[in-house]
Specification:
By secondary structure, this protein is mainly β. It has no helices and eleven strands. The strands form two sheets. Strands 2, 4, 5, 6, 9, 10 and 11 form a seven-stranded mixed sheet that branches. A four-stranded antiparallel sheet has the order 1-3-8-7, with no helix packed on it. It is globular and about 40 Å long. The termini are far apart.
């Protein structure tokens, strides 16, 4: 079993920055074997993909809506994945969730509880 805990959310003005963290733990968890992603869900909207990073950190992928503004990274020594969010816009307001899956599967098996990001105009 893998447990994911997000932190770092908060209230920020448009144009500002936040860094989210996703700390992973679990008896069988090995960072290099897991792809980790960030998703978000705004009120009344479906959950959407934001970014993901491979276990080694060698490959990243972003949604078009955040490309060039958000950066996903990981520190496997700390079992932690980060999402640096710059140039935030009011439309980035959402609950942000961390998710993980073993690299051999396609379904996101593990989810955190979420952290709220609110961007004021």
């Amino acid at each position: 079993q893998v447990q994911l805990v997000e932190s770092g959310g908060g209230l920020v003005q448009a144009g500002g920055s936040l860094r989210l963290s996703c700390a992973a733990s679990g008896r069988t968890f090995s960072s290099y074997s897991y792809v980790t992603g960030w998703f978000r869900q705004a009120p009344g909207k479906e959950r959407e993909f934001v970014a993901r990073i491979t276990g080694s950190g060698g490959s990243t992928y972003y949604a078009d809506s955040v490309k060039g503004r958000f950066t996903i990274s990981r520190d496997n020594a700390k079992n932690t994945v980060y999402l640096q969010m710059n140039s935030l816009k009011p439309e980035d307001t959402a609950a942000y969730y961390c998710a993980a899956r073993h690299y051999l599967v396609t379904d996101w098996s593990y989810w955190g509880q979420g952290t709220q990001v609110t961007v004021s105009s």
